[in-house]
Amino acid sequence: MSRIMVIGARGRAGKAAVSEAVRRGHEVTAVARSGGDGLVSGDVTDAARIAELAAGQDAVIASVYDSGPTFFPEAAAALVEGLGDSRLVWVGLASILPTADGTLVMDTDGYPNEYRSFYLAHQAALEVFRGSALDWVSVAPTGDFNHAAPARTGSYRVAPGSASELISYADLAIALVDEVDRPRHHREAIGVVAGQVV
């Protein structure tokens, strides 16, 4: 059993990560910007609060959102400062994953770019992680979440970015907790899609 902190536990990916970790028997501290409903209050951009909450944790899963252009790199910097030796599993973004030919998803033909500043903010967060000594991995859907079929299938595979591919929040959560239980990827961004584990 591990002690896992999930930051952003009120959101869909965060809730799914909490459920998956509890399902496996882990001790979970569920954190949200505002507490209540069984959640501990904590701001992911507050390094001191992160350090306080991360004390004694084996790993941290962070699934956070804010539309501000500086939020993601600020959150990344606070996590780097606050986590110490805890492993970080970061919920990333498909838009900044490379496709099979190396083109970033956000640069493929027809991909919507009205939110490009949001994509670039996510990319800036990864640059913060890369410049640190933190043991981190970014796990993102290769394309998008499957809102029409949200059930847990119990399987996924790592794959290049592809805007047409789908995965449920529940199956993404399996990948997130797997990277705590059996870390396979370190200091890199990966994409996952529904399908047989490879």
Description of the structure:
- With about 200 residues, this protein is of the alpha/beta class.
- Helix content is about 30%, strand content about 20%.
- The chain contains five helices and ten strands; from the N terminus they run βαββαβαβαββββαβ.
- The chain has helices at about 10-25, 45-55, 70-85, 115-130, 170-180, and strands at about 5, 25-30, 40, 60, 85-90, 135-140, 145, 155-160, 165, 190-195.
- The chain has an eight-stranded mixed sheet with strand order 3-2-1-4-5-6-10-8, sandwiched between helices.
- α1 (about 10-25) crosses α5 and α3 (about 70-85) runs parallel beside α4 (about 115-130).
- It is globular.
- The mean pLDDT is about 95.
State the end-to-end distance.
Answer: 24 Å
H/E element string? EHEEHEHEHEEEEHE
Report the biggest beta sheet as strand number plus sense, adding barrel if it closes. Answer: 8 strands, mixed
Instruction: Write down the Rg.
Output: 16 Å
Strand order of the largest sheet: 3-2-1-4-5-6-10-8
Low-confidence stretches: none
Helix segment tally: 5
What proportion strand? 15-25%
Total beta strand runs: 10
Return the structural class. Answer: alpha/beta
What's the pLDDT, averaged over the residues? 95
Q: What is the helix fraction of residues, given as a range?
A: 25-40%
Shape: globular
Summarize this structure briefly.
This protein is an alpha/beta fold and 198 residues long.
